[in-house]
UniProtKB/TrEMBL annotation:
This is ACT domain-containing protein. SUPFAM superfamilies: ACT-like. Gene3D superfamilies: VC0802-like (3.30.2130.10). InterPro entries: ACT-like_dom_sf (IPR045865), CASTOR_ACT_dom (IPR027795). CDD domains: ACT. It comes from the Bacteria. Residues 64-124 form the CASTOR ACT domain.
Length: 131
């Protein structure tokens, strides 16, 4: 991880919920009352990442069994290399990920079977991880 991030001890939080990643046909089925719902819209698809329990009925295809790791706190827009450092730590351990950013911060999604190894890799890279 970049020296500045090691010094700052970038803090991460592992989320206890299981998530699903899917394409959806109908956005009216999204339950916005369930936290940690991410939606993306492109000319060719409408996708959702949400807690498995909140998956809309129109979701097809679906990939289940994802865990979320979020950067704690707000990330300034001029921060450089945060996602590269985080994804690099996972890449060195051969752990695939799905990355998502919001206005305030960044999120990593890893399959639950890789979650423990991912957290260890991120700690090894200099992050402080809350489990």
């Amino acid at each position: 991880m970049e020296a500045a991030f090691k010094e700052a001890g970038l803090a991460l939080q592992a989320c206890p919920y299981l998530f699903a990643v899917a394409k959806i046909a109908d956005p009216s089925g999204i339950d916005w009352s369930v936290p940690w719902t991410f939606v993306s819209s492109t000319p060719g698809e409408l996708s959702i990442v949400c807690q498995e329990k909140a998956l809309p009925a129109s979701a097809r295809p679906v990939s289940y069994g994802w865990k979320m790791i979020r950067v704690i706190g707000k990330m300034p827009f001029d921060a450089v290399g945060v996602m590269a450092s985080l994804s690099g730590a996972l890449a060195r351990e051969g752990i695939p990920l799905l990355a998502f950013s919001s206005y305030d911060t960044d999120f990593l999604f890893v399959k639950s079977v890789h979650c423990s190894r991912a957290l260890e890799a991120l700690e090894k890279g200099g992050c402080r991880v809350r489990r």
